[in-house]
Amino acid sequence: MVEQLRLMEAKLRRADEEISRLKVALDEKTKELDAAISFMNVREPLSGAEIITLANAFNDEVFQGAAHIAEGLGSSKHRYPEYQKRIAQCKGEYEQALMSLGPNLLEDLTAEGEDYSNGYFLLQVAMQVCMVNFGVNVLQCWSPDKNEHKVTDQIYQRILSKENQEVAGSWRSVTLRSQRSEPMQRKMDALLYTIIDILTVAGWWSREEEPSGFFTKFQGNLVRIVDSALKLREAIGSVTHMDILPMTVPPESHFCPEVMANFYASNTGAARVSESDKVLATTELGLERKVKRSEGDTQGAVLLKPKVVLRSALLSFLESDQDNR
């Protein structure tokens, strides 16, 4: 009798988790439908659903690229020792890695030890975060020249403060099309060298190794990531009746299911995610829309939730990995 009760409790618990997972999925679809509705009756070259599809395509390329890099480097399993000595020699690389990943994820990634399975998990997360941040930069940048970018952004903010959304959006769209674009190779180089800096600091790459070797091995992934980011940028830039902005979540933020999603929800169980959980990093780009209303204020809404890795998911992964040994 007691055993039957335990089995029933276990079934109920699994059913509750499945219901919670389905609720999360339903909420995602509802958000996508709301995004599509917001584009109805407005003449735009692309629909909201098409833009979300492009964002998801970028996120898919990021995931595949990060997994390919983690698997490719893992096959050789070369973790370079003497972390403190490495950091002392790589101050420039360390600053770049810190800017891309943030202090907590970088600290986790560079932790000493030869436990490759843990390192593989963290390396893939770090690569996703790096690539997502690269995508954010592509989407937000007016110009490859920093001064030109700053001036153009200031002009747009002034126009937006004085004119209605359609006028400001049309100016933004025309300006983005006419701005001097950065060659694709330079964008790939920027992504490549940021990845190399992270790998060097974390001990997965030696300063003596040529970046060209890495590029040759993972060229296909890098090209697809950059290309999908540029396609998304072009699509977002064509929309005039609203501003569509990339969304990420600052590390150590509390988990908020209304504006973000758990990247490992299917593995950890949506029911076990609480708002007390903290974000380790953003691994999938989200989108938000902002519209200047006739009253002059700005109304915002989430089009696509960014997906995050929670610190609890990391701990759960490490614990399960230990149990399986």
List keywords for this structure.
325 residues; 3-stranded mixed sheet; 12 helices; globular
| Percent in helix | 55-70%
The tally of beta strands, per DSSP, is 6
Number of helices: 12
Distance between the termini: 34 Å
Largest pleated sheet: 3 strands, antiparallel
Query: What average pLDDT do the residues reach?
Result: 79
- Which spans have pLDDT < 50 for at least 5 consecutive residues? 36-42
Query: Which strand order spans the largest sheet, edge to edge or round the barrel?
Result: 1-4-5
Shape: globular
Instruction: Report the sheet-strand fraction.
Output: 5-15%
Domain count: the total is 1
Q: How much is the radius of gyration in Å? A: 22 Å
**Helix-strand topology string:** HHHHHHHHHHEEHEEEEH
What class would the helix/strand composition place it in? mainly alpha
Describe this structure in words.
- There is one protein chain.
- By secondary structure, the protein is mostly helical.
- The chain has one domain (15-39, 47-323).
- The chain is 64% helix and 10% strand.
- The protein contains 12 helices and 6 strands.
- The protein has helices spanning 2-38, 48-74, 83-89, 91-101, 103-109, 116-140, 146-162, 165-178, 184-202, 211-237, 265-268, 311-323, and strands spanning 243-247, 261-262, 279-284, 286-292, 298-304, 307-310.
- The strands form 2 sheets. It has a 3-stranded antiparallel β-sheet with strand order 1-4-5.
- A hairpin with a 5-residue loop joins strand 4 and strand 5 (298-304).
- Helix 2 packs antiparallel against helix 6.
- 32% of the residues are buried.
